[in-house]
Amino acid sequence: MKKLAILSAVLAALAVRAALVPATLFNDHCVLQRDRKVPVWGTADPGASVTVSFAGQEKRAKADANGRWRVDLDPLAVSCQPREMRIAADGAKHEEVVLKDVLVGVVWLCGGQSNMTFAMWPEPSVGTHAGREMNGYYDVMLTDAPLVRGVRMPQCWSVKEKDHEKLKWFSFTPEDRQEAKVFSGAAWHFAIRLNQALKIPVGVIESAWGGSCIETWIPPEGYAASENFKGMASLPIAGKPTPAQVESAKKSGRKPSLHQQPRACWNAMVYPLAPYAIEGAIWYQGCTNRGKWNQYYEMLTALRTGWATRFEVADMPFFLCQITPYGYGFKTEEADPGEVQIREEMERFGLSNGNNVGCAILSDIGELDCIHPGDKRTVGTRLAALALNRIYGRKDLKCDAPVFDKAVLSADGKRVTLSFRNVEGWCMKGSYAPRFELAGADGVYKPAVCDIKAKVKTITLAVPDGMRPERVAYMRRSCVHGFLKNEAGLPLGPFRAPVAAR
User: Fold this and answer.
1) DSSP state, residue 193
2) Most confident of 134-138, 278-282, 288-292, 339-343
3) Residue 131: inside a domain, yes or no?
4) Helices (H), 253-326
5) What whole-number distance in Å separates Cα of residue 203 and Cα of residue 224?
6) % of the chain beyond a pLDDT of 90
7) Is the C or the N end of the chain the one with fewer CB within 10 Å?
8) Is pLDDT above 90 for 46?
9) Do residue 458 and residue 351 come from a single domain?
């Protein structure tokens, strides 16, 4: 009994000494954001005075009645030199926390659903295609980039906003290959490209869940600022399934998707990360929301607004991926519940929200028999090109895919001339024939033969016999590839538009 009492006293003392707890992302090997105030926060005993020391700065704060504290470091210069951050609190019961190997560079949040969680190269098994980047094994094995760091948030959800236990940062080096193999392929390639171009530390935070809808990632502030979805800011989140959901789960063999409720993933997978200083976010999601494509633009706006508020980044850089062509099994375009339309909305969002927002067009990398295209190297590269051009001053680097401008019918009614932006010349893959279509007043689309010349920016379509064209479309079906590209190898995305008379 005496030994048990002594052990209990020791454990109690250790628990007290562990009362100083920095937020989840503050750990060894973390990357801090340059040129921006850097919030450092956590918990301690109520009333405790906390001191944070880093890079010659010493900032103090007092824990509030709930034990929460925060300091803001002044903007930091880039540093490739590993340094220590020290966090201490007054009173003998608080043990000093020392973070080792801390770098200063740029940090990006990487969110979405399965195409963002799609891993570099987890241990392969027969028939497993959808879990591996096509070049992931060699990319991981041949990479030694100690200035590039990643951290991965486990998949979890909550009915209320809550903190998370410590997360582990890892470096893109041989010593951390196992962590790199299961890390997001899109985020991995994005980070490597930024590091190659900028020559500075890069940190990427993966927080994504396969199959998740966009609603679950939006914080209350994002909903509150929207016109049509204000009610979702305070909509109750169910903590357990209803009897009907339980019965449905028994029949389908699938667990109830309670994590899909508005704000559920935000509460547990993003809230604990904010307001960590970040540069911006990349986003790869949309398949789950294609049936509600007409809401998606506003949902994207709510997501960006909410994240910008919580991470305290005005006009937050936000670059998203247009989902790729995939054969959902619908026999006609009319039966498809919005895959093409949501892609159009994604591009519209990227084009209409200023310099700090962009959309990576991925019409050329889809796999029609797999919703998870394996070429995440192209995904990460195109996202990085947007960031490098728009945020980091690489104006020599082309980042914008061709964008349809207008369609004009010739005076004789035999030709439709298409004009585009972001094109100096066209290139195509082999014998690929682009799928352009025209429709008359009856709304029935018919294939149109196109005349494309490498050095001519416009494209001419031959009008089918007997038609007075009123509409033009490109890649109108979800399972059609788009290999028509500009001089930088960036593909034209799907579009539908009216035809104007000359």
Assistant:
1) H
2) 278-282
3) yes
4) 264-265, 293-310
5) 30
6) 82
7) N
8) yes
9) no
Q: Do 176 and 240 belong to one domain?
A: yes
Do 444 and 468 lie in one domain? The reply is yes
What residue type is assigned to position 459 of the chain?
I
Of 106, 124, 146, the one marking the end of a domain is 106
Tokens of 423: 């094109």
My answer on whether 114 and 142 are in the same domain is: yes
Sequence-distant (6+) residues with CB within 8 A of 488 are 398
Give residues with Cβ within 8 angstroms of 418, minimum separation 6: 404, 405, 406, 407, 436, 458, 459, 460, 461, 472
Pair 177, 247 in one domain: yes
**442 Cβ contact partners less than 8 Å away, ≥ 6 residues apart:** none
> Containing domain of residue 52, as a range?
18-106
E runs forming strands in 63-201: 68-73, 79-89, 97-112, 145-152, 169-172
Give the whole-angstrom CA distance, residue 309 versus residue 111. Answer: 16
pLDDT tens digit sequence for 477-497: 888 889 999 999 999 999 999
Q: Give, rounded to a whole angstrom, the gap between the first and last alpha carbons of the chain.
A: 96
| Contact call for residues 88 and 96 (beta carbons, < 8 A) | yes
Number of domains, the chain:
3
pLDDT of residue 333: 60
pLDDT tens column, 140-192? 999 999 999 999 999 999 999 999 999 999 999 999 999 999 999 999 999 99
49 and 193, same domain (yes or no): no
Lowest mean pLDDT across 10-24, 120-134, 369-383: 10-24
Residue 490 in contact with residue 398, Cβ under 8 Å?
yes
Closest CA to 77 of 47, 56, 99: 56
Q: Is 10 a domain residue?
A: no
3-class SS of residue 169: strand
Q: Are strands 97-112 and 31-33 parallel, antiparallel or unpaired?
A: parallel
CA gap 247, 220 in Å, rounded: 31
In this structure, what CATH number is given to the domain that contains residue 465? 2.60.40
Q: Which of 106, 134, 160 is the last residue of a domain?
A: 106
What pLDDT was estimated at residue 256? 87
Q: Are residues 35 and 162 in the same domain?
A: no
Residues 6+ apart with CB under 8 A from 38: 32, 72, 73, 75, 76, 277
The answer to whether residues 216 and 196 belong to one domain is yes
CATH classification of the domain holding 96: 2.60.40.10
Give the C-alpha separation, 268 to 250, whole Å. 27
Q: How many CB atoms lie within 10 A of CB 45?
A: 16
Tell me the pLDDT tens digit for each residue of 200-220.
Answer: 999 999 999 999 999 999 999
Instruction: Specify if 228 maps to a domain.
Output: yes
Identify whether 185 is part of a domain: yes
How many CB atoms are located within 10 Å of the residue 18 CB?
Answer: 12
